Amino acid sequence: MRVLAALSGGVDSAVAAARAVDAGHDVVGVHMALSRTRDQFRTGSRGCCSIEDAGDARRAADVLGIPYYVWDLSEQFEQTVVADFLSEYEAGRTPNPCVRCNEHIKFAALLDKAVALGFDAVCTGHYARIVVRDDGTRELHRALDAAKDQSYVLAVMGPERLARSMFPLGDVPSKEVTRAEAAARGLSVSAKPDSYDICFVADGDTQGFLRARLGSQPGDIVDSDGEVVGEHDGAYAYTVGQRRGLALGRPAADGKPRYVLSIEPVNNRVVVGSADELLVDVVAADRAVWFGTPSADLECSVQVRAHGVPVAARARVAGDSVEVTLADGLRGVAPGQSLVLFDGTRVLGQATVTSSRRAAVAAS
């Protein structure tokens, strides 16, 4: 097969490309340039979009003996991932930019361009497994290494894009094995630190980035009874479940910490309350993407954060909407988060959280 290997400049994508070469595929490496103003991205290894990463990707391609190109996807990245990030926060929701990058860039813009150029598949260094059943059905599963599993952020891709994807690292037992393989192959990125944080927030200060883009929007911080207990400079800078940085002028009557319960963009208010008030056991979501046709009523496990613990649930599906009832409650579930449904290790589908509630409270 003709395979386009997405080379981020990190060790995972380099080893994934090497394994595709070993498998006998005709591999071409490509690095995605996601900004035309490169200095807005951090240097070093904190993100995945620094200028050093482009050089590391080129050196990896040279070692592997494969052609290497840089594709400018900066306009698509700004118009989709960054724009979505800003609009979601401004609307009082909590987005996951890695999910949106996989949806709009890696498995949309990149994959579509690859197919148009005659490639059969895109290979990435994500930790996830593709299982092919006897009837040819391709399923997305968790990686063998649970600590590195990235199936959560890949669930948005859907079956059609999964059909043209390769994840050679899905069966790797640990990141240490990947690093050892990279060193044995002579790849200079073998000891490169993992990337983390949001790649387009250059200094890691998400609130500062939002403030610079969205400006000052002062308003009230209120408790669950509507009483003003503080002020904020922009509701967009807060997320459900947040405890630190509230700077409240009035302590809670019981002396216990307060947490952000909800964001009300229409009223420009941040609502705070106790840890108990954060607990929810019913989550509604829409814009569902399914791998196969789901049952209208199914038992599953769900996850609402990339590194969250899966929780047993019962899901009721209606079109592209889904409502899950959790066996055990979760705290800090925010609109905008990605809700991923699993059957064991298999990804069933993904949807975007619209609301959450406590069933007992709603019934009273």
TrEMBL record:
<dbReference type="Pfam" id="PF20258">
    <property type="entry name" value="tRNA_Me_trans_C"/>
</dbReference>
<keyword id="KW-0963">Cytoplasm</keyword>
<dbReference type="Pfam" id="PF03054">
    <property type="entry name" value="tRNA_Me_trans"/>
</dbReference>
<feature type="active site" description="Nucleophile">
    <location>
        <position position="101"/>
    </location>
</feature>
<feature type="active site" description="Cysteine persulfide intermediate">
    <location>
        <position position="199"/>
    </location>
</feature>
<comment type="function">
    <text>Catalyzes the 2-thiolation of uridine at the wobble position (U34) of tRNA, leading to the formation of s(2)U34.</text>
</comment>
<feature type="binding site">
    <location>
        <position position="125"/>
    </location>
    <ligand>
        <name>ATP</name>
    </ligand>
</feature>
<dbReference type="GO" id="GO:0000049">
    <property type="term" value="F:tRNA binding"/>
</dbReference>
<dbReference type="GO" id="GO:0103016">
    <property type="term" value="F:tRNA-uridine 2-sulfurtransferase activity"/>
</dbReference>
<dbReference type="GO" id="GO:0005524">
    <property type="term" value="F:ATP binding"/>
</dbReference>
<keyword id="KW-0067">ATP-binding</keyword>
<keyword id="KW-0819">tRNA processing</keyword>
<feature type="binding site">
    <location>
        <begin position="6"/>
        <end position="13"/>
    </location>
    <ligand>
        <name>ATP</name>
    </ligand>
</feature>
<feature type="region of interest" description="Interaction with tRNA">
    <location>
        <begin position="148"/>
        <end position="150"/>
    </location>
</feature>
<keyword id="KW-0808">Transferase</keyword>
<dbReference type="GO" id="GO:0002143">
    <property type="term" value="P:tRNA wobble position uridine thiolation"/>
</dbReference>
<feature type="site" description="Interaction with tRNA">
    <location>
        <position position="337"/>
    </location>
</feature>
<keyword id="KW-0547">Nucleotide-binding</keyword>
<keyword id="KW-1015">Disulfide bond</keyword>
<dbReference type="InterPro" id="IPR023382">
    <property type="entry name" value="MnmA-like_central_sf"/>
</dbReference>
<dbReference type="InterPro" id="IPR014729">
    <property type="entry name" value="Rossmann-like_a/b/a_fold"/>
</dbReference>
<dbReference type="Pfam" id="PF20259">
    <property type="entry name" value="tRNA_Me_trans_M"/>
</dbReference>
<keyword id="KW-0694">RNA-binding</keyword>
<feature type="binding site">
    <location>
        <position position="32"/>
    </location>
    <ligand>
        <name>ATP</name>
    </ligand>
</feature>
<dbReference type="InterPro" id="IPR046885">
    <property type="entry name" value="MnmA-like_C"/>
</dbReference>
<dbReference type="InterPro" id="IPR004506">
    <property type="entry name" value="MnmA-like"/>
</dbReference>
<feature type="site" description="Interaction with tRNA">
    <location>
        <position position="126"/>
    </location>
</feature>
<dbReference type="GO" id="GO:0005737">
    <property type="term" value="C:cytoplasm"/>
</dbReference>
<comment type="similarity">
    <text>Belongs to the MnmA/TRMU family.</text>
</comment>
<protein>
    <recommendedName>
        <fullName>tRNA-specific 2-thiouridylase MnmA</fullName>
        <ecNumber>2.8.1.13</ecNumber>
    </recommendedName>
</protein>
<keyword id="KW-0820">tRNA-binding</keyword>
<dbReference type="InterPro" id="IPR046884">
    <property type="entry name" value="MnmA-like_central"/>
</dbReference>
<feature type="domain" description="tRNA-specific 2-thiouridylase MnmA-like C-terminal">
    <location>
        <begin position="283"/>
        <end position="353"/>
    </location>
</feature>
<feature type="domain" description="tRNA-specific 2-thiouridylase MnmA-like central">
    <location>
        <begin position="208"/>
        <end position="274"/>
    </location>
</feature>
